[in-house]
Amino acid sequence: MSTQVETAEFQAEAQKLLQLMVHAIYSNKDTFLRELISNASDAIDKLRLASYQDKDLQVDTDDLHILIEPDQEQRTLTIRDNGIGMSKDEVRDLIGTIAKSGTAELLQELKDTSDGAAAQELIGQFGLGFYSSFMVADKVTLLTRKAGEDTATRWESSGEGTYTIETVDEAPQGTAVTLHLKAEDQEDRLLDYADTRTLTQIVKKHSDFIAWPIRMEVDKPGEDGESTRELDTINSMKALWARPKGEVEQSEYNEFYKHVAHDWNDPLETIHLRAEGTFEYQALLFIPATAPFDLFSRDQKRGAQLYVKRVFIMDDCEELMPEYLRFVKGVVDAQDLSLNVSREILQQDRRIQMVRRRLVKKILTTVQELQSGDAERYKTFWENFGQAVKEGIVGDPDNSELILDISSFESTRDESEKTTLRQYIERMPEDQDAIYYITGNSRSKIENSPHIEAFRDKGLEVLLLSDPIDEMWVESVPEFEGKKFQSITKGEVDLDEDSEQDAQQKEDFAGVLTWMSTALSDDVKEVRLSSRLSSSPACIVGDNHDMTPTLEKMYRAMGQQVPRVKRILEINPTHPLVSGLRSSFDENGEGEDLTETAQLVYGMALLAEGGELRDPAQFTSLLANRLAKTL
Ligand SMILES: Nc1ncnc2c1ncn2[C@@H]1O[C@H](COP(=O)(O)OP(=O)(O)OP(=O)(O)O)[C@@H](O)[C@H]1O
């Protein structure tokens, strides 16, 4: 067998992340061991599953374990597992590159931040798995043989841009990662990772719950006072989710979370539940403290890990979690499923649907409790995951009321504080019968939109809905707690109390309105007087069931055919431009100049709401000509 050594380069992004590790940006160096043990444990889970699914696979699964081998003299530390191993191509793909989405954004953010603590938090959020070995080692050697293959692969790197890779004839099945340790440096929080006591402490702290034995030779005091070296299992291996809730420390939950979620930070919330009766299961779920970089990418995975009677069955079990809760991590261990259950079977299984319903309810009510009991943590939750959770208002009709209840929204009342719907309703004046809202692309755009003027003048609060998903749910939900949602850019709004004056104005403007409706008929279906404006001359509104321009644009962007919706131009009778337009029409009748003024009024209204002109060049030329006349 040829054992030619190839030298290859890390992918550019991997190189940059490695540099961060080599130059020790992350202060909690002990985490490397948790990462390597976590990978080893995953590899054993995979082997166990593969041997179960493929009876012809020639592997020995009798004594699956992880072995820690420190060598004080050589200053090395080896983490060895007899799990699934990797093929040569897998080593290249999995170790030489970083396929995680969000890497580019992470690197950009790291470049932009000069604050060490912020950089650490970013790294912590991203997790660096295998690469974290380079925090404590100046050279790493990996020897691996994939289950069922004859030859093995040896990989080595000092983390400086290149690595070597070669095929070797012999190696035990599984993976051994050998770290050539950096010198101990207490100041830099670099401990002696060849010391068995240090290693034992780290394993107990970070990896105690790992389901496979983690073994290491340790010194044991003998009867004659002499100590002897003995192979010991240093983790308790107790599945955390199977232990009674009251007996598990939060620190244990936190460590377990870091293992399942590949996160380096503590979770925001822990949910531990057990169901007994016809279908028994235990669930241990976590809400992370920060949203992952890829929360809104299409390939974002979702779902808890599924175990059956303590045996790992699959990662990302989608059947257990709806898409809008894709950020929830954890484990569900069911007692009464078959070990060879497949995704197809799970999709059909009504018991799994029942579990999912219960988990969803539990997660949502946990957030509800947070909302009423811990404002700061609720705020963190909502800032990170609110946008995703709101997808459930449309996607999960059974829970839409509950989701609305735990949601909070920006409003005209306070720039820095969001409001819940319940709080909004409590503040509503007695005669207000609807929840007013406006949708659009950004807070700044909608908050200065002319539609809001009269609401602001009258002290009426308006919700400012600027997430793309808001456009969707607000169309589909009729009401909350008996109050219907009313867009302030749609339908007729009557905020003026003086009906006598109204009637007079209607009469005065009747002629000019009819003429304007015809003059602008290519763009609008009607021109009418407004009671929602106080300082702007005009605004554009829709009928109650019309699609908003933002929604129209969203559908077009998704490639759907949508007819162009003509909306309504509302003009402000008290604005000098509008009253002047009317007197000019009354005195001189229609004319080219007046038509141009009407077009300008329409164009301005469109721009004021952040809309796009159909013919911007024509609009600017009209405006330029008009301005020239004033000079
Ligand atoms: N001991 C191992 N045995 C088999 N495969 C392994 C082992 N260690 C790593 N791998 C493979 O290499 C991949 C990359 O590992 P790495 O630790 O860099 O990232 P990860 O575990 O996928 O995610 P994270 O960076 O969030 O920890 C793993 O997903 C796994 O497929």
UniProtKB/TrEMBL annotation:
Family the UniProt entry places it in: Belongs to the heat shock protein 90 family.
NCBIfam families membership: PRK05218.1
UniProt keyword list: ATP-binding, Chaperone, Cytoplasm, Nucleotide-binding, Stress response
Domain spans labelled Histidine kinase/HSP90-like ATPase: 28-185
Gene: htpG
One term of GO molecular function: ATP binding
Binding site for ATP: 35, 39, 81, 86, 100-102, 125-130, 175, 343
Stated name of the protein: Chaperone protein HtpG
Species name: Saccharopolyspora gloriosae
